[in-house]
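User: Show me a protein chain along with its predicted structure.
Assistant: Here is one chain, sequence first, then structure tokens.
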Amino acid sequence: MPLARPMTVPEAQALPDRADLVVLGSGAAGLSAALTAALEGLTCVVLEHAPTIGGTSARSSGTVWVPGNAFSGGDADLVEARRYLNALVGDKAPAELRETFLENARRMLDDLGQRVGLEFRPLATSQDYRPDVPGAAPGSRALEPLPFDGRELGERFSTLAEPLKELMLFGQVMVSRSEATRLLKADRSIEGAALGLHLLGRAATDRMRGYRRGTRLVMGNALVARLYRACLDAGVMFRTGIEIQRLPVSAGRVTAATLDGGQEILATRGVVLAGGGFPASARMRAEQMPEPVPEHTPAAPGCDGSTLTLGLEAGGRLGPSSIDNALWFPSSIFPRAVGDRVPYPHIVLDRAKPGSIVVGRNGRRFANEALPYHYFVRAMYRADTNGQAIPAFMICDRRFISRYGFGAIRPRTPSLGRYIRSGYLISAPDARSLARQLDLPPDQLARTLGQVNADAVTGKDSAFGRGESPYDRALGDPEHGPNPCFGAIGAGPLYALRLEPTPLGTSRGLVTDTDARVLGAAGDPIPGLYACGNDMHSPFGGEYPGAGAQLGLALTFGWRAARHAAGIDT
């Protein structure tokens, strides 16, 4: 594994008075734009108002959804992906935007792969999120980044945003989705045990060398770190902790970015808005999202809508409101410390596993628990008549926790006492006692569990068909039969977590054209102003076609914005 490259963090170096392209935000969209601009010979400055680089992208899975890639079937897959998106999105967003994505996502991937070594591998069993829609693929449209050695960033490693600690081993060690699955079997698999020892050994070495956390990066941290390193090699300048006051407009063109202290950086080719939307803004969540308004978000704190405000003040406009304007995770809220409560996203590790259910306040199930996260939260809102499904309650027995884990609780955790004392985990000796603790109808919860256990004998979920779709089964337990996603729940003791809707990202943003140029009130592009990532109004109209859909769009339209700014005919 390569040693760290010599690199200092020249924060004392003055910001320039002029750059070809000024990028506001340092997630995947902003880094894609900055890197592409630099590769095309433009000078570029990335300004990030958070203290670290990477935004929500750095704490994400890092997966990118790229139909027609070399692993998914090329042109033939592109035909099917077009059919899928047309059916899924329909008139929720302009067709030319998704067509531009389809025609350019793999071009972007090939370009950055050849020029800076941006590499991915296919998630062969990662099903598209709506397998009921014509054109959905059984896998390989979703790609995951290769691991990256954080030591390659040198001293800049300290400026890379960290993942959520609850998604790392011991809050220190990153693991990929496939590694997490193998580690679940560490007590009964030589391969799983060997992997655990290897990862812990590498982390111990990192700690002895003075690193605060493991430098073996996977998922979103690996993607951001690789882009960050490539940007630095290409000459991109970065500054963190920078607030932007306004974007001066002259003769209808955005000409500069004015910093909070009054310094102005002229942007000869334009400004790119890539601030990550508004999931971290309590005010905008209240204005834009359905009730009950989500209180928490797993998104980076810097995604507060400030770049959207800058774009609106410069003459841009928001796209039409959708049913929720959010891209969702169901999360339990973990009390990390006194006064510090963080969402733990229930994505793939527990909801689809056999031996748990989710019920509303009426004690009834309301959806297939194995649904993709975005669509499961939409089911929560649909079922939330008179507060019936938000929060919802995920219920299991002790055997389930030992085997699969439960939210922030790791598999094989010997004692659950601290989770119960903190209020994160609710426990009771039986179904009726648990119902009384949760203020649910005791008889109804008992009936629900009874029906689940009766269905589990045959493996046929009579209520919602859990485990029938390829998507469900890919996330289940292949060692459990007859249904890998559906199993009995013991009589007691029983345990529950509260689940809430939490927005990972937002889908309502600034209206753009196919080159990511922000459009004004009359529908014409505002010269010198671009938006990408979640600052751009979703080309998928708020739908979530597959794992990595947000990052696929972010990288593609960041790439297109920079190429347009560089005068390249895209």
